[in-house]
Automatic annotation (TrEMBL):
It comes from the Bacteria. Belongs to the NAD(P)-dependent epimerase/dehydratase family. One of its GO terms (molecular function) is L-threonine 3-dehydrogenase activity. The lineage of its organism: Bacteria, Bacillati, Bacillota, Bacilli, Bacillales. This is L-threonine 3-dehydrogenase. InterPro entries: Epimerase_deHydtase, NAD(P)-bd_dom_sf, NAD(P)_epim/dehydratase. Gene3D superfamilies: NAD(P)-binding Rossmann-like Domain (3.40.50.720). Pfam families: Epimerase.
Length: 310
């Protein structure tokens, strides 16, 4: 992994991943791309619509990259309001990016999600290999995407690798319309108003992870010895299994007056209830040494220390 093209680079993950990759591999070796660009973003960047296969191919060729990190996607809650668009972007974009990887012999990373699981999946310590019958368009895309990546590995030898991310918590770029977005909003509102109204019900557990752990996982997986990777697409990874009231408890250690209320959104609640409480990440630990450094208290202290709310 010496020169990397990142799609969806303006998003919650991409904006931080590009920074991290540039620190590690050098600014000129990381090409950001998206449908749009914030003016202040520096370094090599291309406007690329991933539904245009030729555009991905030509960008990868122009910059002579050896790796694609494909992040452009429509997330769970947004995908549920526009399922056809989600299919076209999530599957069409992935296929285009994989084709470029095949044609140019590139290493390939794309994230799957806890959303790949469904209501019939075991909810606790969800195993690496288990029932995957998601009931959302996003989940359907993620399962199909995992299989497609494995297919490109076994059929064409493309070095595809992926993780099943939990909900990601970060302060640089707001989340893009997922079911776990509340876990970011709660911190912003704690700082701004000392109060948050959660659209996810009390007692609803989901897996979450702080962004630094999520970024380290990508680099560690992509740098791992390919001979050790049996599962490839995609590895369960897990850090913090939490319900809204757990965040409130952790936040009150810093903002004692913080109040948590509930106004449950039935669509996102139903999605949340169809997902696991926490994943078993032992296969990722064994095959490429996955580890998470942040628990809820360490993450909360860091988030509240770094958040700037306008
Ligand atoms: N953030 C999470 O909590 C989380 C959890 C699990 C998995 N993931 C996965 O990680 C990946 C990135 O997620 P994210 O949270 O950064 O998403 P995001 O919504 O924050 O960002 C997605 C980016 O893709 C771009 N995009 C949309 N359509 C495009 C197109 N046609 N061509 C090019 N770019 C396009 C958007 O402009 C946006 O900048 C996705 O595959 C997502 O499913 C995210």
């Amino acid at each position: 992994m010496k020169k990397i093209l990142v799609t969806g680079a303006m998003g919650q993950i991409g904006s931080e991943l590009v920074r991290k990759l540039r620190e590690t591999y050098g600014t000129s070796n990381v090409i950001g791309s998206d449908l749009w660009k914030k003016e202040e973003v520096e370094g090599p960047f291309e406007i690329v619509d991933v539904t245009d296969g030729k555009a991905i191919y030509e960008t990868a060729k122009k910059h002579q990259v050896d790796t694609i990190m494909h992040l452009a996607a429509l997330l769970s809650a947004k995908a549920e309001s526009a399922p056809q668009l989600a299919w076209n972007l999530n599957m069409g974009g992935l296929m285009n990016a994989l084709e470029t990887a095949r044609e140019l012999d590139l290493q390939f990373f794309t994230p799957s999600s806890i959303g790949a699981f469904g209501p019939t999946t075991p909810k606790k310590k969800t195993p690496q290999e288990t029932i995957m019958r998601p009931t959302t368009m996003y989940g359907v895309n993620k399962v199909a995407g995992e299989l497609l990546c494995d297919y490109y590995y076994s059929r064409y030898g493309v070095d595809t690798r992926g993780v099943r991310y939990p909900g990601l918590i970060s302060y640089l770029t707001p989340p893009g319309g997922g079911t776990t977005d509340y876990a970011v909003e709660i911190f912003y509102e704690a700082v701004r108003a000392k109060q948050y109204t959660s659209y996810i019900a009390e007692g609803t557990y989901m897996d979450m992870m702080y962004m630094p752990d999520a970024l380290n996982a990508i680099i560690k997986l992509m740098e791992a010895d390919p001979g050790r990777l049996v599962h490839r697409n995609a590895y369960n990874i897990s850090a913090i299994s939490v319900a809204p009231e757990d965040f409130a408890r952790a936040i009150r250690k810093h903002i004692p007056a913080f109040e948590l209320n509930y106004d449950v959104d039935p669509v996102r609640q139903q999605i949340a209830e169809s997902w696991p409480d926490n994943l078993d990440s032992s296969v990722a630990e064994a095959e490429w040494g996955f580890e998470a450094a942040y628990d809820i208290d360490r993450m909360t202290a860091d988030m509240l220390g770094k958040l700037r709310v306008e």
